[in-house]
Design brief:
This protein is an all-alpha fold. It contains 21 helices and no strands.
């Protein structure tokens, strides 16, 4: 093996080790979150779950916008460049201090404004149909005011996590995210009479969880000696560079997240429970997205930024393609499983207490469409850091604007045709456009992948996926074998068989070698 090949292999190992570290921590958080969502559906009626889901959508929007998006991808490349240019000097720390100072001022103002103007804000975000129920409206606004404090703490956590990621620490920040779900789960089971009004505990659980998350990463960052201080030393070139990346980045990734607010408005005009069904389906979608795409995208960004700074284009493109194919290899079976097993999954997880059979059918209908979008959204989340690592933020922003406009234009039509499911179909078609435009433009910025190897690898993934679909057909046989009374065992056996089939076929086709050992042609 040549020296270049050995270095490339080590870079790949580094990326996947970081992604695995993040995914392990994220898995803990997602399992706890799933338990929380199961309790939410079983213990509370649809009025309370709709109100909580609607109120939580705003702080969650900011969490995804800055916590999982534009802040990290705008800050990390500049921070890595500053560290490389001045490894023993104050340049990188001054950047961290300056951005932290501005962030605290912004978050403080945003939180206070959100609490003060919660009522008019929800009047914009929710339809008149939703506001026709005074009790539901009052509950939503009250929960929203409590949870606006979460924005301050969760985005402080997100910034600290970005710093830790830039310093090479991925495991602890990901594990810290579990504390939110620990808090929310604990408050879900607290007696209702502990709080002035029904449902308040759900909102307080979110706020306390944000405080816990921020505290843990604050301690971790402090132990590294890189804890930022409230100190602004002026508009340095590095700070200006972050904001030059941040503004179009906010438009690009922010408009992608803005789709959730658009869906909230449209869903609030549909029958009660619609907002909750979208929430539960979205949570199941986010499980593979967080484990695979978000973890892999976050792990890729520092490595790609380093390679872009060092002008090593060959290694840059090979590493990017590895990440894209690994993402596709893992997200494809998740998408197929969620689509073909939507109802059995919802039944096993949620069918108890106040979660009825009708709730199962409605949530599964949304989940099936979300499953189709999984590969598209996952692919886009890996492609966007590729653009950001070479400091191209305007093109993904333009693509997001176009995709969002398409969704808004189509949503009413699809809702008239298919109801709640039509709303998700509209957002899936927008996700398709977003992915195609991001992928098609790679050659324009000399970011194109090796076409032949990419085609061969994807073909093998699809063959393995076809085997997985066949294996899923045994679910009815497993149900009959258990007499239909042990649905969890039948579902578990089906998932194990499907996963084993997918991996066995992939191994027979030498899939790991085809995308972990790719060597780009030099023509």
């Amino acid at each position: 093996m040549s020296q270049e090949a050995r270095v490339l292999k080590e870079d790949r190992k580094k990326v996947f080790k970081r992604a695995f570290s993040m995914a392990s921590g994220t898995l803990t958080s997602r399992i706890l979150g799933l338990l929380r969502d199961m309790a939410l559906g079983a213990l509370f009626d649809r009025m309370i779950t709709d109100a909580w889901s609607a109120a939580f959508r705003i702080p969650n929007f900011f969490r995804r916008l800055l916590g999982e998006g534009s802040l990290s991808v705008s800050f990390i490349p500049v921070f890595m460049e500053a560290k490389a240019a001045d490894p023993h000097g104050p340049r990188a720390q001054n950047l961290a201090n300056g951005l932290y100072t501005l962030l605290l001022v912004f978050l403080g103002a945003l939180t206070l404004l959100g609490i003060a103007f919660a009522d008019p804000l929800f009047q914009v975000l929710l339809s008149d149909t939703y506001g026709a129920s005074p009790e539901k409206w009052e509950l939503t606004v009250r929960m929203g005011r409590i949870m606006f404090g979460f924005i301050f703490f969760i985005l402080t956590y997100a910034y600290f996590m970005g710093l830790l990621n830039a310093l090479g620490s991925f495991g602890l920040p990901a594990v810290a995210s579990a504390l939110l779900n620990v808090s929310m789960l604990a408050f879900t089971f607290m007696p209702a009479h502990w709080f002035p009004r029904a449902g308040d505990g759900l909102a307080w659980g979110v706020l306390v969880g944000g405080i816990l998350q921020a505290s843990v990463v604050w301690w971790a960052l402090r132990s590294t000696g890189h804890l930022p201080r409230f100190k602004f030393t002026g508009w340095s070139a590095d700070l200006k560079a972050v904001f030059r990346n941040l503004v179009p980045g906010l438009v690009g990734m922010g408009l992608t997240q803005f789709t959730t607010l658009i869906n909230l408005y449209f869903a609030s005009s549909l029958p009660e429970g619609s907002i909750s069904y979208i929430y539960w389906a979205d949570r199941l979608l986010e499980l593979p997205l967080s484990l695979v795409s978000v973890s892999l995208g976050a792990a890729l960004l520092p490595t790609l930024s380093d390679l872009a700074s060092s002008k090593d284009r060959e290694k840059f493109l090979a590493t990017a393609q590895d990440g894209f194919l690994m993402n596709l290899f893992l997200s494809l079976p998740a998408a197929l499983g969620l689509y073909f097993l939507a109802e059995p999954i919802i039944e096993v997880l949620f069918l108890r207490g106040r979660f009825t059979a009708n709730d199962v059918v409605s949530t599964a209908a949304v989940l099936k469409v979300y499953a189709v979008s999984l590969v598209l959204i996952a692919g886009s989340r890996v492609l966007m850091p590729l653009y950001y690592s070479v400091k191209n933020t305007w093109y993904p922003a333009a693509v997001s604007v176009l995709s969002l406009a398409l969704h808004i234009g189509m949503a009413r039509y699809w809702m008239e045709e298919r109801g709640l499911q039509g709303l998700i179909i509209s957002s899936t078609l927008a996700a398709l456009l977003n992915f195609l435009l991001l992928f098609a433009a790679l050659p324009k910025w000399n970011l194109s992948f090796a076409g032949k190897e990419l085609f061969i690898a994807i073909t093998k993934f699809l063959i393995a996926g076809a085997g997985l679909i066949l294996a899923i057909q045994f679910h009815q046989a497993f149900l009959a074998w258990t007499n239909g009374s042990m649905k969890l065992i039948a579902l578990t056996l089906t998932i194990l068989l499907a996963a084993t089939t997918y991996l066995t076929i992939a191994h027979a086709l030498k899939v790991p070698a085809s995308f972990l050992g790719l060597h780009r042609s030099k023509n």
